[in-house]
Amino acid sequence: MLWLLVVVFATGSTVFLSLDTTAVLLTPVVVVLARHAGLGPLPFALTTVWLANTASLLLPVSNLTNLLAAHSLGSAGPGAFVALTWLPALIAVLVPSALLLLIHRRALFGRYAPEHPQPVGDRVLFGCSAAVLLLLVPALVSGLPVWLPASVAAVLLVGVFLARRPRLLSASLVPWSLVLLASGLFLAMESAHALGLGELLADVIGGGSDTAALLRMSGVAALGANAVDNLPAYLALEPAAGSPDRAIALLIGVNAGPLVTPWASLATLLWHQRLTRMDVRISWGRYALLGLVAAPVTVVAATLALAVRPG
């Protein structure tokens, strides 16, 4: 089934290259793919953005919140991080995928007639880009600082594009407004903590690592992510984590929970930008209604998986 391939690619892209990469790069691909097959692009686009968020639990590189958590856990390497997150991460992929299949079953099970594939326009550019990607993925999970292989890959790709397609390079490729927004969120949270936010949230969340306490942590985190974005929600709640299981419950809330509001994650905003440029329309009201179904179910199921995780 074509849709299952999209699930696999969205999950793999998110796990190894981050949720923002999936939102930026995979969204236009799945829209074009659906249109070439004569199918409505919306179910495929929703699959991309939901999994960009919910599939971002497995590795430190999958989400900026994970990198921050790995640091707070004592710079946990990829192996140690996976040992903590593998079962919740699996559930966080399966649950939204099952919901999408249920909601869009008629569209996804329909027949389609694919168009003839178009030949690659620049085989050298394609080959070089593919080679950089194949080298980048293992480097990102090797335990090296993420910025190092990412920077090397960026320099190599810029060099290839300067040689082959220089007109495609421009400053507008960088989402400057979102970069400034993320920077501002970090500063805002530092200021809020200095004014006593941490103590207030510690009273709200409580303590403990039993199932009820973990559900409380992930639920508050999901609400916070949809209220103010997942990055400031993580930064606000991180001091109240206090243990590895509580830290993972926090990640479940801020990674798998931001499916309701447009600003819940930067990946969602990037995704919507791509859809708008490709003339794919979805009302934020409909998006929120679907998210109100998916987010609580996914967060609760993943948190319960954390609570019963072996070891």
Q: How would you characterize the overall build of this protein?
A:
With 311 residues, the protein is mainly α. The chain has two domains: 2-113 and 165-308, no CATH class; 123-164. 73% of the residues lie in helices and 0% in strands. It has 15 helices and no strands. The chain is globular, with a radius of gyration of 20 Å. It starts with a helix and ends with a helix. The mean pLDDT is 86.
The oligomerization state is single chain
- Gyration radius over CA: 20 Å
Q: State the end-to-end CA separation.
A: 36 Å
What is the chain-wise order of helices and strands?
HHHHHHHHHHHHHHH
How many individual helices?
Answer: 15
Overall SS class: mainly alpha
Low-confidence parts: none
Biggest beta sheet attributes: none
Record field, number of beta strands: 0
Strand content: under 5%
List the SSEs and their pairings.
Elements: H1 2-17, H2 19-36, H3 42-54, H4 64-72, H5 78-103, H6 105-108, H7 123-140, H8 147-164, H9 176-194, H10 197-205, H11 211-228, H12 230-237, H13 244-256, H14 266-277, H15 284-308
List keywords for this structure.
mainly alpha; 311 residues; 15 helices; 2 domains
What is shown here, in short?
The protein is mainly alpha-helical. It has 15 helices and no strands. The model has no long low-confidence stretch (mean pLDDT 86).
